[in-house]
């Protein structure tokens, strides 16, 4: 089973694109390392305080894939410098 999510986020403390990219790099690396999820910035690359991330995971069982995605979304919420505003989840 393949599950994907598009996650809109705000990064309030980012004062430049460099700040934003540092925050995103840390989050993306940890998501990949801890949950083996593919992560990419999909939109708003040139805005300091806004981003849309795409997350994708694949598993042999629907329950495992959904559980992994929910853990990853909870993990994103644990970062104080980023706020998840809207999430769209899709099964492929």
UniProtKB/TrEMBL annotation:
Protein name in UniProt: DUF503 family protein
Record Gene3D superfamilies: TT1725-like
InterPro entries: DUF503, TT1725-like_sf
Pfam families xrefs: DUF503 (PF04456)
Organism: Halobacillus litoralis
PANTHER family, A to Z: DUF503 DOMAIN-CONTAINING PROTEIN, HYPOTHETICAL CYTOSOLIC PROTEIN
